[in-house]
Amino acid sequence: MKLLLDTHTLIWAGLAPAELSSSARALLTDEANRLFVSTATAWEIATKVRLGKLPGAERLEREFLDQVTGAGYELLPISAAVALRAGRLAGDHGDPFDRMIAAQALAEDMLVISKDTKLDAFGVRRLW
Hints:
With 128 residues, the chain is an alpha/beta fold.
């Protein structure tokens, strides 16, 4: 199964695994699954580290590519078509990072591993 990690899922998987639900942990450790991280996650982490909203994630921000690939995750780039789709998603949820992750999940037919119930409004398949 193709799975897209939400930003908090990636952070918790590396820094605070106890925060993950048992279902999320099972999905992340099942070798039959392909695990993806959006390039939007790099943008979100860098932004939140700069603003002081992610204490403890500075190393992840500095070593993002090494950390992601070292954990066995695949990086999912953002295409122009997906960026346009993110901007066109209906609803008033204004978080651009969530919109991008939702658009990528829809375009790539992926299940999102996320605690964020606001993603459901975009019609994504989400599990926590």
